[in-house]
Specification:
2 copies of one chain form a homodimer.
Chain A (H helix, E strand, L loop, with lengths): L3 H26 L4 H24 L2 H4 L3 H10 L3 E3 L11 E3 L1 H20 L4 E3 L4 E3 H6 L2 H4 L1 E6 L6 E3 H13 L6 H13 L5 H11 L14 E4 L3 E3 L7 E4 L4 H6 L1 H7 L6 E10 L14 E11 L19 E2 L14 H9 L13 H17 L6 E5 L11 E9 L2 E10 L3 H10 L5 E18 L1 H8 L3 H9 L3 H14 L2 E5 L2 E5 L4 E15 L2 E8 H12 E4 L2 E7 L10 E5 L7 H13 L4 E3 L6 H10 L4 E5 L10 E6 L5 E5 H13 L4 H7 L2 E2 L5
Parallel strand pairs in A: 3-10, 12-13, 23-24, 23-25
Antiparallel strand pairs in A: 1-2, 4-9, 5-6, 5-7, 8-9, 10-11, 11-20, 13-14, 14-15, 15-20, 16-19, 17-18, 21-22, 25-26, 26-27, 27-28
Protein name (chains A, B): Glycine--tRNA ligase
Subunit structure (chains A, B): Homodimer.
Keywords (chains A, B): Aminoacyl-tRNA synthetase, ATP-binding, Cell projection, Cytoplasm, Ligase, Nucleotide-binding, Protein biosynthesis, Transferase
C-alpha cells in the first residue's frame, strides 16, 4: 500500500533496524559480553518501534484526509455552523447543533469525571462579567493584546504575526524568489513567536509586505487588547470586561476555597465555563474563535514542595515530549503534516521527570494524555511541546502545551503551566487581602516583635477625630517600619506619619514602643499554582478530524468513528421493514434503552437498511440495533447489534441490550468481548 | 403545636368538614339515594384535603423559617457567594462554590434528561455575543428596558417600579398615614405591573416619593436598556450585545433545525446557557442577578393544530392554577406568605384544558410541574399564574408563570408562553430569509401563475452587464407584481423597474408574460412557538429554602434535606474512630462507590460521630456510611447507612452499597424499601 514517497521515508529507518540486527548477530557470533548484547537489543527494539509507528503514521488513511468532505458532513448534519448565518454570519462565532452539542456535553461530562471527581477537585462557577480592576491586577488590561497592522487606505485590520506567516509562506511557494530570501523567510518563521512590535515592523518593511487583499501599505503594528469591554449598572462608569479565561475567578475565590479545604494545601480548584477573546480576524473554524468553552484547573501547592502523592500511579506512563532543548527542530514545523509527524517521533520517548519542572506538572500532563486518549484523540498525533523561554510569561516556571496534529498543523489544545505565585500576589497587591496559606514550621521559632502603640489620651487631644486613623496606621506598621520610626523619634524627636498622602507629625510622647519575643508555629506562604487549561472546541475539532473515516472501496461513504463514550447518540434503532409486526419489537428496544438512559435515534424511513446504516454511521452512532422478522417470531425477543466501525454484527435478547451497551459505552467491555459472548449475525445488506 | 392565629384560620375549614360529615350521616340515616351520598362523599373528601393541606402549609416549620440562618450556611459552606468580594463585590453577580456547582450541575443534568432526552428535543448551543441587528429584529434593542429614576442631586439610580413598591410598603407600616392614603397605595400596588412611565411619574409625584437614601427629589422615569453592550472585532463599528435570553439563538437557526428534523413539524429545540441582564440595582440574592443560567425550549408547531400527541399521558395531572379571571385576588399577594398560601389553595384545582390556551402549552406546564417536583420543590408552594393581558407581550397568546413561594414572596421561576409566530416573522422581515415550514394540503390546489420572462438577447443589447440583474429581479416578482407590470406595458408601453433605488426603463419587446396554472401540494406556514423558559438560579434558591430544616429540639442544628438526585455529594464515609483496623473497610467502601460513580466525602476528622453527622447533614449529604469495628470483624465487610433526613440506619454488605445507593439516587427505590430489605441498625450516637 505504501507509496514511493513513503517508502523513501521508511528506508533509512529500515536500514537502521537492519544495522542493529546485524550487529547483534555479530556480537553473538563473537560471544561478546552479555551486557553489550543486552544494550544492543534495547536499541534494536527502540528502532523497530520507531519504524512501526512511522509506518502506521504514514499509512494512507491520514494521507487521504479530505477536509472539505469532513466540513460538508459537519455542516449538513449540523454538528456546528457559523452563528447568525441568516444575518450574514460573524467570523469567529459558531453555534453547535444537536450533534455537536451532545458531543461537547459528553466530553465535558468525561472531563468532570476524569478530573473533578477522580481527583477530588473543588469546582467553582464564576461570572464571565469581570470588573476592570481584577483584570488590571492580573495583567490582562495592560498586556492581553495582539499586534495588529491596518491597511493605510481602507483601515482593514490584520493580526501582524499571521500576516507575516502567510506572506512568507506565499513567498516560499514563489519560484521567482531567490534561495537567499527564502532562507531569510524560514529563519523569520522559526523566530516569529518571540517577536515584538519592532521586530515585526522590521520584517514587514524589509520584505515589503502589503495588505493581502488590496496590496496597500500597512501601518506599524498597534497593540489591540483582546478583551470585550462593557459596563455594569446604569451609570456607565463601572467598566468591566468579559473574562478572557476562567482562571481569575478561581484566584479571587482562593480564600473561600482554602477555607472549604479546611486550610490545607495542596488542593485543586476547577472551572468549566466560557472564555471570550476578541480575535482580530479569526479564521480556521473552531480553532480560533471569539467565544469558547474552556476547562481550567488551578492546583495550589507549597512552592517548596511540588511533589505529588499519586505520582507513582503515572510514573511509568510514556508521553511524546518535545522539550525546548530540541526546539531547534521547530523551524521544521512548517513542513507537511506527515513529515512533521515523523520528526516528532524522532524526539524519542523521554521519561518526563528528567525534563518537566516538577511532579505535579508531570502528573497533570500524564492525566491530560489519558483524558485525550479516552475521548478519542489519536495518540500518534499528540505531543507535549515545552515553551521556549521567550514564549512563556516572565513569571512562569515551565509550560508544556499538549499539541494535536490536524490538517491545520500542530494545534495547541491544552496548556500545562507552572505559574508560580504570580496571580495570588497580584490580587493581594491590588486588594491588600492576604492570599496565603499557613504552613506548619518543622519546629517553633522565636521572633522579635517591635510594635508602636498610640497613647490615645494625648493623641486624642492633638488630633481629635483623626486619632483613631493614626492609631490604626501605627498598628499596621511592620517591625522594620517601627524600628525606623523609633530611630526618628530618638534623633529628631519627630516622626512624620504618612496616611494616604497626608502627613501627621508625631512627637515621642504620643507613642510607646513595645518590644517582645513571640513563638511562631506556622509560616504564611503564597502557594504556587500549576494550571492545566483545556480548550474544548479545539480538542473537539481535532477529535472530529481523527474520527473521520471513508469506507474502503467507497470513498463517498464517509463516517465518524467516535468512541462510544463521547458519541452524540449511542444507538440507532432500525426496523428492517415498515411492517406492523415489528412495532412491538421496536417498542421493547426503546423501553430497554430508556431504562439505561441510552440515547437512541429511530430511523424507520423507507430507505434500504444499508442506506440507513450509512446515514447513522455518518453521525457517528456506534451501535445499530436492527429489529427483523426473526426478532418477534418467538419470545423473548431478540435483535442484532451492528458495530459501525467494523460493520460486524451479533444477535442477543432485548433484555440484554441495556447492560451490554452501557458497558461498551463506559469501556467496561470492548466490542471483541461482546463478539466472543454472543453469536455472530451475518447480514447481506450492508 | 398550632398557634391561636393558625387555629383561627383552620376553624372555618374544620367546620366545613364537620358540616359534610354530619350531612352524610343524615343522608345514610334517611336511606337517601346512593348518588346523593356519593356526591356528598366527594365533597367531603375535597374539604378534608383542603383542611389537611392548609394545616401542613401553616405548620410552624415554614413559619419559623430563618433566612439569615440559611444564608449563613450557604456562605459558610460555600454554596455561593458574591463575586469579586475581595475587590468589594459587584451586586447581582454570584460565584458558585463546590456545593452550589454540583447542585446546579445535577439540576441541569436532570433537566437535560427530563426534557431533551425524554422528549427527543434538538439541543443547540449558541453564542452569548449577539450582533445588534438580531436584537433589533427581536425587539430587544427598542423595548428590553426598565424604567429608572435618578436622584436629582447625586445621580443614584433606582428601578422605578421597585422604588414605588418599597415606598408604598413603608407607608403601609406607618401609623401616621391615613386609611384613605393606604387604600390608594394598595390600589397602586395591585395595578403596578401594568404601569408605564407616565403612570409611575404620576404616582411618584402624587405620593411625593423621594430617594430612599438621600431624601432628594427624583427625575422622571427614563428607559434604561437592560442589555450589556460591546463590540466585535478591532474596528469598533460592529455593535453587539450579550444575549438577554437564549431563545434568539434558536430562532436564527430555525432553518437548520427544521432540516435536521427532515422538514417535519412539530419539533422542539432546547438550549442551556447563559443570559445577561444589566439590572438597575439588583438585590434579593440569586433571585435578581446580572448573569444567569437559563434553560429554554422553543417548540415549533402548526399554528392551526397545537394538539400534542402525548397529551393523554398528563391529562389527569392536577396543577394549582391561578388564572387571570381570579386575578382580582392579586392585590392580596402583598400579605404574609402563609396567608398567600391559603389564598392560593382556595383557587381550587382546575383541570387545565378549560383555561390553558392549547394542549402543547398545557403539556409543557405539566412537565414543568413534574420537573420541579423531581428536583425537590415543595408542591404546596408552587402555582401557575396566568399573565394579565397588560403583562403579556402584544403578540403572545397565553402565558403561565410557574411561581414558587419563598420568603421573598411568590417568585417567577419558569415562564410558559405561547409566542405565536412573532419571532420567526421578525427575523424574516430583517433578513428576507424565509423561516417557514411546508404543510401538506389536504388536497392539491390549482393556482394561477403569472411570470415575467426576460428576452435576454434584446436585454443584453440594451443593458449590457446589467441584464443579468434585471433578469433576476423579474424572476423574483410575485404574480401580483407581474400583473401590474403587464398593465403598464399595455397602457404606457413602458415599465420602470426599480432595483435598489435605480430605475431601469423596460419596453414591451424586452419581456414575455407567461401565464399558466400550477398544482400546489404544500403550503408554506410560519410555525407558532411555545416557549418554556427556566431560570435555574431562581429554582435553585427556592429549592434551598424548601430543603432547609432545623432538627426538632435543637434549632441551632440546621441541615439541607435534598433529594438524593440533586444532592451535591451523595455519601459521606465516616470511620467510627481513627484506628488503623478500619482502613481496609474505608478503602473497600471508596472503591465500591467509585465503581458506581457515586460522589462521596470522607470525614475522618477527630470530631465525635454525632458532630460529623451534623457537619455532613448541613451540606445535604443524604447518606452517611459508617465503618465501625463490626464492619471489619468478618468478611464480607459490612457497613451502616444512615439516612440524613430521618436519621434512621440500616446495616448491609459493602458489595451491596453501590447498587442500592444508585437506586436511591435515581428514585428506583425509596428509603423505606431499603429499610424493609435490610436490618435496622440502632445507633446511640446521633
Amino acid at each position: 500500500m505504501a507509496t514511493p514517497e513513503i517508502e523513501a521515508q521508511l528506508a533509512p529507518l529500515r536500514a537502521a533496524v537492519k544495522e542493529y540486527g546485524d550487529l547483534i548477530r555479530d556480537l553473538k557470533a563473537k560471544s561478546a559480553p552479555k551486557i553489550d548484547i543486552d544494550k544492543a537489543v534495547v536499541e534494536l527494539k527502540a528502532r523497530k518501534r520507531l519504524l512501526e509507528e512511522t509506518e502506521i503514521s504514514l499509512a494512507p488513511k491520514e494521507a487521504s484526509f479530505d477536509r472539505l468532505k469532513l466540513e460538508d458532513l459537519l455542516k449538513r448534519r449540523f454538528f456546528y455552523d457559523q452563528s447568525f448565518a441568516i444575518y450574514g454570519g460573524v467570523t469567529g462565532l459558531y453555534d453547535f447543533g444537536p450533534m455537536g452539542c451532545s458531543l461537547k456535553a459528553n466530553m465535558l461530562q468525561e472531563w468532570r469525571k476524569h478530573f473533578i471527581l477522580e481527583e477530588g477537585m473543588l469546582e467553582v462557577d464564576c461570572t464571565s462579567l469581570t470588573p476592570e480592576p481584577v483584570l488590571k491586577a492580573s495583567g490582562h488590561v495592560d498586556r492581553f493584546a495582539d499586534w495588529m497592522v491596518k491597511d493605510v487606505k481602507n483601515g482593514e485590520c490584520f493580526r501582524a504575526d499571521h500576516l507575516i506567516k502567510n506572506s512568507i509562506e506565499k513567498l516560499m511557494n514563489d519560484k521567482k524568489v531567490s534561495a537567499d530570501v527564502k532562507r531569510d523567510g524560514e529563519d523569520v518563521l522559526a523566530r516569529l513567536e518571540g517577536f515584538d512590535d519592532k521586530d515585526m515592523h522590521e520584517v514587514i518593511t524589509r520584505f515589503k509586505f502589503k495588505s493581502p487583499i488590496t496590496g496597500n501599505d500597512l501601518t506599524e503594528p498597534i497593540a489591540f487588547n483582546l478583551m470585550f469591554p462593557t459596563q455594569i449598572g446604569p451609570t456607565g462608569d463601572f467598566k468591566a470586561f468579559l473574562r478572557p479565561e476562567t482562571a481569575q475567578g478561581i484566584f479571587v475565590n482562593f480564600k473561600r476555597l482554602l477555607e472549604f479545604n479546611q486550610g490545607k494545601l495542596p488542593f485543586a480548584a476547577a472551572q468549566i465555563g466560557l472564555g471570550f477573546r476578541n480575535e482580530i480576524s479569526p479564521r480556521q473554524g473552531l480553532i480560533r474563535v471569539r467565544e469558547f468553552t474552556m476547562c481550567e484547573i488551578e492546583h495550589f501547592v507549597d512552592p517548596e514542595d511540588k511533589s505529588f502523592p499519586k505520582f507513582s500511579k503515572i510514573a511509568d506512563q510514556k508521553l511524546v515530549l518535545f522539550p525546548h532543548v530540541i526546539n531547534w527542530m521547530e523551524h521544521q514545523r512548517r513542513k507537511s503534516p506527515s513529515e512533521m509527524l515523523l520528526q516528532t517521533k524522532m524526539t524519542i520517548y523521554i521519561m518526563f521527570q528528567k525534563t518537566v519542572a516538577n511532579e505535579t506538572l508531570g502528573y497533570y500532563m500524564a492525566r491530560c494524555h489519558q483524558f485525550l486518549m479516552k475521548v478519542g484523540i489519536d495518540g500518534r498525533r499528540l505531543r507535549f511541546r515545552q515553551h521556549l523561554s521567550n514564549e512563556m510569561a516572565h513569571y512562569a516556571q515551565d509550560c508544556w502545551d499538549a499539541e494535536i496534529l490536524t490538517s491545520y498543523g500542530w494545534i495547541e489544545c491544552v496548556g500545562n503551566a507552572d505559574r508560580a505565585c504570580y496571580d495570588l500576589l497580584q490580587h493581594y497587591k491590588a486588594t491588600n487581602v492576604k492570599l496565603v496559606a499557613e504552613k506548619k514550621l518543622p519546629q517553633p521559632v522565636d521572633v522579635d516583635i517591635v510594635e508602636a502603640q498610640a497613647n490615645m489620651a494625648l493623641l486624642g487631644k492633638s488630633f481629635k477625630k483623626e486619632a483613631k486613623k493614626i492609631q490604626s496606621a501605627l498598628q499596621q506598621m511592620t517591625s522594620e517600619q517601627v524600628t525606623s520610626l523609633e530611630a526618628d523619634l530618638l534623633s529628631k524627636k519627630l516622626f512624620n506619619l504618612n496616611i494616604n498622602g497626608e502627613a501627621y507629625p508625631l512627637t515621642p510622647d504620643l507613642i510607646n514602643i513595645k518590644k517582645y519575643s513571640k513563638k511562631i508555629h506556622v509560616q504564611e506562604i503564597t502557594p504556587s499554582v500549576i494550571e492545566p487549561s483545556y480548550g474544548i472546541g479545539r480538542i473537539m475539532y481535532a477529535l472530529l478530524e481523527h474520527s473521520f473515516r471513508q469506507r474502503e472501496g467507497d470513498e463517498q461513504r464517509t463516517f465518524l468513528a467516535f468512541k462510544p463514550l463521547v458519541a452524540p447518540i449511542k444507538c440507532s434503532v432500525l426496523p428492517i421493514s415498515a411492517n406492523d409486526q415489528l412495532v412491538a419489537g421496536i417498542e421493547a428496544v426503546k423501553e430497554e434503552l430508556s431504562r439505561y438512559e441510552l440515547s437512541y435515534k429511530v430511523d424507520d424511513s423507507s430507505g434500504t437498511i444499508g442506506r440507513r446504516y450509512a446515514r447513522t454511521d455518518e453521525i457517528g452512532i456506534p451501535f445499530g440495533i436492527t429489529v427483523d422478522f426473526e426478532s418477534v417470531k418467538t419470545t423473548p425477543y431478540t435483535v442484532t447489534i451492528r458495530h459501525a466501525e467494523t460493520m460486524s454484527q451479533i444477535r442477543l435478547e432485548v433484555s440484554e441490550l441495556g447492560r451490554l451497551i452501557s458497558d461498551l459505552v463506559a469501556g467496561r467491555q470492548q466490542w471483541t468481548d461482546a463478539q466472543a459472548k454472543y453469536p455472530k449475525f451475518e447480514s447481506t445488506t450492508d
